[in-house]
Amino acid sequence: MSSADAEKAGGPSTAEKADQQDGMNVPEESDSDRKDALVDVEAVAPVASESRSHSHLNVDPFPIQLHLSRSLSPSNPQHPQHYHHHLHLQHLHRPPTRSDGLDNFPPPLPSSSNELARRLTRDPDIQRQMGLGDEDVGPPPEGGREAWLCVASAFFVLFCVFGFVTVFGQLKIYYLAHQLKEYSESEVSWIATVQTFLTFGGSIVSGRYFDSHGARTLIVGGTTISVLAVVAMAFCKEYYQFILAHALFGISGSLLYSPSTAVVGHWFMKRRSTAVGIVVCGSGLAGVIYPIALKRLFDELNFRDAMLIIAGMNAVLMFPAWFFLKARLPPRSPPPLKSLLGPWKDARYMCLVLGSCIVMMNFFSPYFNAPTLASGNHLSPSISNYAIALLQVGSFFGRASSGILADTFGVWNVFITSIVGCSVTVFAFWVASPIPPAAAVVGLVSYGFASGAWITLVAASTGAISPTREFGMRLGMLWSLTSIPTLIGPVICGLLITSEGGTFKSAGIFVGATHIFGAVITILPRIIEIIASLSSSSHRSSSGPRQEKTKGQGQVQGRGRDEEISDSRA
Length: 570
Prior knowledge:
- It is a single chain.
- The chain is an all-alpha fold.
- It has helices at residues 3-8, 14-24, 31-36, 41-52, 113-120, 124-130, 145-166, 168-177, 185-201, 203-213, 216-234, 239-262, 264-267, 272-300, 303-318, 321-324, 347-360, 365-368, 370-376, 381-384, 387-409, 411-430, 437-464, 471-482, 489-499, 505-522, 524-569; strands at 64-68, 87-91.
- The chain is 69% helix and 2% strand.
- A two-stranded antiparallel ribbon has the order 1-2.
- Helix 10 runs antiparallel to helix 24 (471-482) and helix 11 packs antiparallel against helix 12.
- It has 27 helices and two strands.
- It starts with a helix and ends with a helix.
- The chain has two domains: 10-130, no CATH class; 145-526, Up-down Bundle (Growth Hormone, Chain: A).
């Protein structure tokens, strides 16, 4: 019987038999080839297109059959999902049936190579290399036991870290009166400047590490170093010793801050601003408690015992974070360093970083100089000693309410309003010094409220314009760059206060100007977008009647030409 007769009888043709024999002779591959081979769907499409173009093939609804042959000698034969990474194309002149040895009809080609790779292998190492591990986790749970335990742990971590950072004004008074009384106020301010710089400067490293490996190592290492740094401060006597001890505490803060704020984005999306606001409230509440606690401890105990008590309290509060502050997304291999350049193509992120740098130049200057501001406005010593606590009371309520306000009115709206409020408060209450004591208290609380809301929403504003997987990296880069101006602002403010005999007028102008300029830079992309939309709408409104007129003239001319043609034909 000829091949043509075989085809008419319904049997396979000679070409089909050859193709089937070719399909059975699949070359074996080594284990390394079997593990590393990935299928590129885009490479399959041209082959399919070329196969359809052959003249000796009949074009049917099922022109190509995709075979995934199991490995003849897999590394783990018992694994049901272990496939041999080899594609075989078989030309068909009819739809496949079960008699052809197929359990199921060929599924449609996947829409992406990642989807096909997941079908071919379940190897977790390959999934981590391809960044596929987070695909199956699902959306953030928006609550639950693990999520709220994570929020509570992050709350107490920031309570210990930033409570101690913002209370430096209280420590500075003690240093100038005891261990460092031979040093000037600006020289002692360098201790706080170095500590703040290191707290934010290392965030780019910790943020990148958090995105790749999670929070556990950073939390364990950061909390341990933080407690040891406070213990070291208890035994310091010389200027350089205080510099080193506070620098060590700043390093611990850089390890803790980024994961403590970025991890919230793994558990919350719709209520992210509220969750971040709760976390950052820890530093605001600590700012109220730490100054009062230190004042009482310094009055009743010596410096060493007081600092050891603070170290023990920090250890107890941060220890639960070892177990409950954890990332939800699975770990993955670190992205290449060139990925750090990607966010800078986003104009919104670039202006956010630049504006935040300008704001952060003097963000902590009022906190470091609050006692000086209070005494310059003739407040009683009993109130001046708690000037930092007054600032932190306002900061606590600003942090607590900012998340709710952001979820109601929009993250960026509240974010910009808060920094404008900082500038207005400084110009209204601090530049006009001396002012009545009641007004000075209102100024302290008002600045604390506005500044607390702003620093709380930095993370939420970054998350609003960032992919979830890049959130930690972007936030880390932002805090690292904002740490550089913090080396300048407090020192300049200290020099201005000293040159004016302890008043805050020139320093207040400097602080308020940087805040308002930073706000303008932050919203610059939005301003450009509004101007562009207004100009385009005005252009459309002006060109609309003109286009209608032109269209009407064209219709008249068209009718005239049609009439001429019809007349000529007649």
